[in-house]
Amino acid sequence: MLAEGRANGVFQFESAGMKDVLTKMRVSRFEDLIAAVSLFRPGPMEMIPTYCKRKLGAETPVYPEPVDRTKPFLEETFGIMVYQEQVMKVAQEVAGYSLGQADLLRRAMGKKIPEEMAKEKGRFIEGATSRGTPDKKAAELFDLIEKFAGYGFNKSHAAAYALIAYQTAWLKCHYPVEYFSA
Question: 40: closest CA among 62, 16, 75, 72?
Answer without folding.
Answer: 16
